[in-house]
Amino acid sequence: MNNKVVSSLREAIELTGLKSGMTVSFHHHLRNGDFVLNMVMAEIAQMGIRDLTVNASSLFDIHAPLLQHIENHVVTKIQTDYMSGVIGKAISRGILETPVEFRTHGGRPSDIELGRTPIDVAFIAAPAADGMGNCSGKYGKSACGSLGYAYPDAMNAKKVVVITDNLVDYPLLDWSIPETCVDYVVTVDAIGDPHGIVSGTTKITRDPVGLVMADRAAQVIRHSGLLKDGFSFQTGAGGASLAAAKFLKDIMLKENIHGSFGSGGITGYMVDMLNDGCFQSLMDVQCFDLKAVESIRTNPRHQEISASHYASPSARSAVVDSLDVVILGATEVDTDFNVNVHTDSNGYIMGGSGGHSDTAAGAKLSMIIAPLFRARLPIVTDRVNCISTPGRDIDVLVTQAGIAVNPKDTELRQRLVDAGLPIVDIHELKELAERTTGAPAHIAKGDRVVANVIYRDGTLLDTIRSVPAK
Amino acid sequence: MDIIKKASAGTLESSDVYVEIEPGQGIQLELESVVEQQFGDSIRALVQEVLAEYGVENARLRIADKGALDCVIRARVETAVARGKGE
User: Fold this and answer.
1) Which of A18, A212, B41, B78 is the most buried (most CB within 10 A)?
2) Radius of gyration (Cα) for chain A, nearest Å?
3) Which of residues 1-60 of B touch A (CB under 8 A)?
4) What is the pLDDT of residues B31-45, one digit of tens each?
């Protein structure tokens, strides 16, 4: 075999033997700059293949052409961990006949490896690849850094197609996914738009409410008993979460605390913490900005991990199992500490678990940062509209008006009280918000189930209903 | 005194409300709100209340609400009314 490069995407799809009724998969490291899912699905549609299941680790607004393929029955089932607003709204209005299967970033690789969600053909968007299919996300004009979410697809799909805009001589140095699992390589002009793949910089919030919450969050970590040498930490890329990371970094440097690792989707702020000695290493399943991409390319302490290594509940162990603290967001939290990150205030899908419930289950301290209310809607409700992460895995809710501790965490609560932090009952936060906003009326829900939220262990956690037409 | 000219107050920023008022027959209120389901009726009632307080019986209002609190809505409507009366 000379190499695996075929002349066109069409030829590659034909060679895989893809037929109607099968499952194709995609990973989301090119995020809202991804061209690959759309180009593959357009080709498949032209070939007359129908009734496909699309298993994508996440879906973004750039993937809106998928809606046309749903209307034309090219796609009849979707499995994903996250979908942004444009796709979510159409799903909520009932465009798809079968309910979407939402998994988590750990549950997805687990179910792929256990054979619960077999993949017929995986399409790997590769910013660098050689002719035999060794590939990497670290190099090239479309560099995205880690390819973590693509590993389970590459390792377990019956056929694997690598699509690249940067074909290099064999062997590619510093490959991430090896040629051993790749069947075909296709070259294209561009796999994505660099502006949508990574943001130039992710910025910490300047909103005073956000800064108060971030400061409180850092104080909770400081007094949790977990902030000591060997400390491990994960945070999202939201403005307040990043500000909390910055305050935490200041504390770690001042008190000379040497942590173990930072994990997750990695931002420049986590890279700064690594370089300043807060951590020994970063465990990176996805890069969020250019600084993270540069770091994973050049710093051996910044390590790429697969989705399974990150969060799979059926792996012998995963990084989330060693996490001390995770900072997470929420659209709603209820008085039992259940968290919704799937639907917005009107019931439309606009998100998904991602690693939310995986890290919440693994970390010793799972913290939600959220304002008391957003645009007149209180964060704390009697019952969230969708349970994305069960309350038993959430320890603390930090708001600008006080910190609520899950009643199960009696020792943590005492530590925070002793430290003089403003601890309140979660019901008080709800009442406090409603005194300012008024009590919101309940939203109308439709009759149809449009999505099933599958917990990381494979059990059904909740269902999402359609949003009725006005 | 009634509304004598077209006037507005507020912005379309999150947590604010944009109020447009102009002369009309009776009170005609068009509300578009991001929290229509949760607070639409209470917003309409509040706007009627403020108009009554200021003796406005004839006006056409177009309101675009981005999740403003009652105190904000009240302030924006009051300001639009004052401007519409030429004060």
Assistant:
1) A18
2) 22
3) 14-15, 34-35, 37-39, 41-42
4) 999 999 999 999 999
